[in-house]
Write a structure and sequence with these properties.
mainly beta
Length: 83
């Protein structure tokens, strides 16, 4: 996954998957609700994988995040490379 650099806000609008396909975060959230699986993979010696899940704001808007999201660690989706 890579972040869309056109978004000025600190939210994920589009991602580029490992196969090069670009999907909106909303579509990924919908796919996750339909039991598709996505992972944030850190390309280190262990190829560490963090499952991605769909969560909701207090207003019911879906967004994506890693399951064990820790903003101080490497699994923060907002630290993805931009495209």
């Amino acid at each position: 996954m890579h972040l869309n650099q056109r978004s000025k806000s600190k939210k994920i609008t589009k991602v580029r998957l490992s196969n090069g396909e670009v999907q909106t975060a909303f579509l990924i959230a919908a796919n996750l609700m339909n039991h598709d699986k996505y992972y944030y993979v850190i390309h280190d010696a262990a190829s560490t994988k963090f499952p991605i899940k769909c969560d909701y704001t207090i207003y019911g808007t879906p967004f994506i995040k890693t399951v064990a999201r820790d903003t101080n660690s490497k699994d923060d989706l907002l630290k993805l490379p931009k495209f």
